[in-house]
UniProtKB/TrEMBL annotation:
GO molecular function, one term: metal ion binding
Keyword Hydrolase on entry: yes
Cellular component, GO, one term: cytoplasm
Boundaries of every Peptidase M24 domain copy: 304-514
Residues covered by the Creatinase N-terminal domain: 5-132
Name of the protein in question: Xaa-Pro aminopeptidase
Domain of life: Bacteria
Stored SUPFAM superfamilies: Creatinase/aminopeptidase, Creatinase/prolidase N-terminal domain
Keywords, comma-separated and alphabetical: Aminopeptidase, Hydrolase, Metal-binding, Protease
Amino acid sequence: MTRPIDLLRAELAKRNLDAFLVPHADEWQNEYQPARSARLAYISGFTGSAGIAVVTRDRAALFVDGRYTLQGAKQAPGFEQKHLVSDPYAAWLVDALPNGGKVGYDPKLITEQARSNLLAALEGSALELVAVETNPIDAVWHDRPAASTAAARAQPVEFAGVTAAYKRAQIAVDLSQLRSDALVVTAPDVIAWLFNLRGGDVAHTPVVMSTAIIRNDSTAELFVDPAKLDANLVLSLGNAVQVRPETEFASGLAALRDKTVLVDSTALSGWVFDQLRGAGAKLRSGTDPNLLRRARKNDAEIEGTRNAHRRDGCAVVRFLRWLETAENADELICADKLLEFRKAVPGFRDTSFHSISAVGPNSALPHYRSDETSNRKFERGTLYLIDSGGQYDDGTTDITRTVSIGEPTQEMRDRFTRVLKGHIAISAARFPVGTTGQQLDALARLHLWAVGCDYDHGTGHGVGSYLSVHEGPQRIAKQSSAVPLEPGMIISNEPGYYAAGRWGIRIENLVLVRPPEAVPGGDLPVMSFETLTLAPIARDLIDAALLTRDECDWLDAYHARVYALLADDLNKDERAWLAEATAPVR
């Protein structure tokens, strides 16, 4: 059977290209893609959420970050394995190709910023970067999945908090203040938020594949497959929104001739920039104002999220209780069982991502995905990690719990407790206005650093309101971030530790940034976090001797709150189990 990479190489020869870039990206720059846009997975077999492959006539390399090193080697054995940061693919190209080599790329699949960075990296080389009009992978992918036909639906104001017209009016004010006539948006999750729409075009993320142009008079053009919107939904969008077929997006961009258009080079594709420049639009660089407005959840979104977490917490409690006596359990059985409990929860729509259900060595892979070939049965003397979430009509959840299978070792308890201390440090942090997540990140790692340990992923990511489980611009991470945390932002708190080849630990709750409050005797008001996630943390993995009195008090107060908020929705046996699971740690 001819391999996809061989078909691609034959197509590259027809087009006189010496290499082709295959990023994990789609035309909308989504993290999670429709099946027909999974070109990297088709060519290489790699299914991770970040990376890029480079295919030449006789070589191929896969570039991923530390999260996916092992996964990449396993799924793409015919590709040279490279680190995305320490082994830049531009340098690899210069080494792999002869002078005058032509490197093809699809301008719809690379942001303008990434293209600029690539051009700068190749400057001085004898390589030519060639934009293709049609993607050569699409030409050879004969069984490519069809485009989704899932219907769009309105997100009720009851859960959205404000109307779409109100949101557009706010963005119009932002555009006027930025001296811009229009804004181009190609991120479906942003469009879903802005227009109060939800859909089913991507697994786990309720978006409609679409693009939009927003103008500073509050009018907008929405480019989408018309078949996805029924007459009532179109009517509900109002006369200020013109719904146009997605095939007319290019002509919509062309109509911005002589207009000042706000563009974000980190979010929009090179193709969009090419269209706007070709039309003679005046480009004003800036960040999409939708991002911060979306990140600051309103009262309805906050209350909906709290309610979703209460219901989701009951499902997690039932799962953890079941897990204690489960026989012949394995990773897939456990993931299915948790899904079964969640499906019984009112308002449940979907999981918020593919659950990471991992035991033993697999739990040491932060972004592991279990399947029939990797599935492991439970064995005593190890750890089980379950990172999962739910999509509900009124909110999105994301939670990770780690439990011991059998008696934990002292090393397991030590590492778990140090992760817990970092988790508590973030949860209990108080910080002034203007603080970024980068400034808080060290709090989560301090107790691991003390014994020469760390983890190779961020500590926190933003979360949407019945939208994407990964939502910017806020985050808690080592990497530089210019975005301060603001009241109403929801963000994860998920430090971890991973003993390669043995077991892994992660404790994750979602937290809400509270407004600043005065501190008695203090000089300035400070913000803090409200923990939204409600589920017990494994007490048998805690070495209480390593906890301070304040840390014990935080954990006991958290567990008391979990019991108080969930008990009434559980049956007698479930309440009894939860009472024991949330008993004081000392």
